[in-house]
Specification:
Length: about 450
């Protein structure tokens, strides 16, 4: 006879993701004790599986006399949850359960501390034989009344829907995997060596986007990764630990199906930006890493889909507007661009995060072209461009590289009204034929 639902404080040696750890068993249910059609210890407050879809089962059970049959033939998942159980922020759990039949099943955790539901990925079941599945997830907040979830969908009558038996929940001290170990590879294609495995990792949030964020646990190559996660909204500088599935999304290594999420601290200094060439930006090692290209010439201001191209002499690199759309980049202007390295639509690119990530390169000097001058400098009301070739094209940019005005020079001098401009540093780019010059001036 199997033992009924109870909390156990014994420890057992377990093998978790190929690593030996000490796991504490915190909950078991053998589905031997029932009250009507409800098994003891289940149908917590978060259960939305109808009572008539839960049934005692006696045919070829896994062990003992009874198992539990769950039915949900719809395409919308339903929850079958345990009674309340105390969890602590940072706890990571394995839900192990024997299952057979036909349908999809996943594990989850309901946490009333923030009314959140976290889920593992689904396991597709289509067999008359019993097999044990394991779902790993964690608690982001402490709660005295959390509930473990079995979520089911698409069960079919050909194998009498889904039957479950001998459930065990254990809490483990997980070994953390570094982002470098997730990312580093010499293979072609450059898939993660941990592809399709569940890992626990941690890092500081360096960038965020509507459907996810980037984390980094060091500086330099291979130390950043994108996390696809619509359930959590970290802030830049948050130090987080997550448990998630490693996957390749059209050759982008990413973490998804976040089953555990813990904020360790907030307001941390971001990892140091890694200087790279524009050629380096087209390589796998800087995927997900916070990088910077310097003094890179804009060769195409409208490369399509909100992108523009820069080149520091080593090769072209796309700048994309996924996180921040830089307005009006100017061709033949040299920029410093900071952002996360990213790969999408078979293209490498940098994703600036804000206006402060893009600026005209500080390597642009004061005017050194004989004969051409800007007067007065500094200026308050107007500036004059003196001795430029007639009919030269000029563009004025602010320190962020945004175009302020443009026009054509006139003989002897060209007057530009700057009285309404904000104080700061500006750049005048003059071009005539294949020649161009950039002159720096200050508006007071």
């Amino acid at each position: 006879m199997k033992k009924n639902l109870r909390v156990l404080f014994a420890t057992a040696l377990a093998i978790f993701w190929g690593q030996a750890i000490i796991a504490q068993v915190v909950l078991t249910n053998d589905f031997e004790t029932w009250s009507g059609n409800i098994p003891s210890g289940f149908t917590g407050n978060a259960t939305n599986l109808p009572a008539d879809s839960i049934a005692q089962y006696t045919t070829s059970v896994h062990g003992g006399t009874y198992a539990c049959k769950l039915t949900n033939g719809s395409t919308s998942h339903k929850r079958f949850t345990s009674n309340a159980f105390a969890v602590t922020a940072g706890d990571v759990f394995d839900i192990k359960v024997w299952v057979r039949g036909h349908g999809d099943i996943r594990g989850g955790l309901y946490n009333p501390a923030d009314t959140s539901y976290s889920y593992s990925s689904y396991s597709a079941i289509n067999s008359s034989s019993w097999s044990q599945v394991t779902f790993t997830l964690g608690a982001s907040l402490s709660s005295a009344s959390a509930e473990f979830i079995l979520s089911i969908v698409g069960t079919a009558s050909d194998l009498d829907h889904l039957q479950i038996d001998d459930l065990e929940v254990s809490m483990a001290s997980i070994t953390t995997t570094t982002i470098h170990d997730i990312q580093y590879t010499t293979a072609t294609p450059a898939d993660s060596p941990l592809k399709d495995q569940i890992v626990t990792t941690n890092g500081i949030v360096t960038a965020k986007y509507g459907s996810g964020y980037w984390i980094q646990d060091g500086t330099g190559a291979w130390n950043g990764v994108y996390v696809y996660d619509i359930a959590h909204t970290p802030a830049l500088g948050d130090d987080i630990t997550i448990t998630a599935l490693v996957t390749e999304y059209y050759e982008l290594t990413e973490l998804k199906t976040v089953s555990a999420y813990v904020v360790n601290s907030t307001g941390n200094t971001l990892p140091a930006v890694t200087p790279i060439s524009t050629a380096d930006g087209n390589t796998e090692q800087y995927e997900g890493v916070l990088v910077k290209v310097a003094n890179a010439n804009c060769t195409n201001a409208a490369a399509g889909n909100g992108m523009w191209i820069v080149n520091d002499g080593s090769g072209d690199l796309l700048i994309d507007d996924v996180i921040y759309a830089f307005p009006s980049p100017a061709v033949s202007t040299h920029y410093d661009v900071t952002g996360v390295g990213h790969y999408a639509f078979s293209e490498w690119k940098i994703l600036p995060r804000s206006v402060s990530d893009v600026s005209v390169s500080s390597s642009v000097s004061e005017n050194t072209t004989p004969g051409i001058s800007v007067y007065p400098n500094p200026a308050t009301d107007q500036i004059r461009i003196l001795n430029a070739e007639n009919n030269s094209q000029f563009v004025v940019l602010n320190a962020l590289g945004m175009q302020i005005t443009s026009g054509t020079t006139t003989p002897n001098q060209t007057v530009i009204n700057v009285s309404n401009w904000s104080t700061g540093v500006y750049f005048i780019r003059l071009s005539n034929g294949g020649n161009s010059r950039t002159i720096r001036f200050v508006k007071e």
